[in-house]
Amino acid sequence: MHCINKKFSATLYCNVHGVPSQMVLLTIRNIGIDIELRYIDLFKGEQNTPNFLRINPLHQIPVLHVAEDDYVVTEARAIMLYLANVTKSSFYPIELKKRSTIDSRLFYDATTAYPAVKQFVHQILRVGVKRVPNEVRENIESVLSTLDSFLINSNWFAGDELTLADFAFLPSVESIKCWGADFKNYPRLNKWYERCKTLKGFQENHDGAKKLADKMAKMIDEPLWK
User: Fold this and answer.
1) 59, 54, 105, 106: which is closest to 78 by C-alpha?
2) Quick one: which of 137, 139, 133, 149 has its CA closest to 185?
3) Distance of CA 12 to CAs 23, 49, 74, 95, 219, Å?
4) 166 by DSSP, 3-state: which?
5) pLDDT digits (tens, 9 = 90+) for 14-72
6) Residue 10 in 3-state DSSP?
7) In what order do the strands lie in the sheet with 63-66?
8) Close Cβ partners of 91 (under 8 Å, ≥ 6 residues apart)
9) What is the pLDDT of residues 90-149, one digit of tens each?
């Protein structure tokens, strides 16, 4: 059960296919907050306009602008934590050990899981490779193996209850799925993914990941995943 602050008024600047934006959107959908969404088209450079740079000089999304005190929160995981705290959401329980497990998963995502996905995407969209380097693919396999191991003793990434950790990992896992990866070697991760299909925002996340995967597939000379 979630305690929603009905006076909470904010705007999220995001896009439809970025992993960081999608983890925040999953948090918003499942907590049940009514937040204004403003979509920023990175391919058109809308993150570099003077109006946006006044909100976030780092020209990155997602960004949360809280209207009440003109407060800005940057970085996807920081936004997730802020929203969970301000709404007293059970997705970020107050019990210290549970929180520390969630925090640990969020740090792993920020330092290892998402960077591996970002590197894969960057090679195609920014570097312009026609074949993805083997070491980039191996990094993804290593992440999948670790994620699978996190689920040995629980159904969700931070225990037996759905938490922010699951919202953080799902967009990266969905991206890899949309590249055509087969999770047969990661049965626990695959079962977790199937459970996630009931989450609010799952289809929105899938559609965004699929759109980007389709764009990437047209830019290289081999299957996205092999």
Assistant:
1) 106
2) 149
3) 12, 17, 10, 28, 30
4) helix
5) 998 899 999 999 999 999 999 999 998 887 888 888 887 888 887 789 999 998 888 99
6) strand
7) 36-39, 10-14, 63-66, 71-74
8) 2, 27, 30, 31, 84, 162, 163, 164, 167
9) 999 999 999 999 999 999 999 999 999 999 999 999 999 999 999 999 999 999 999 999
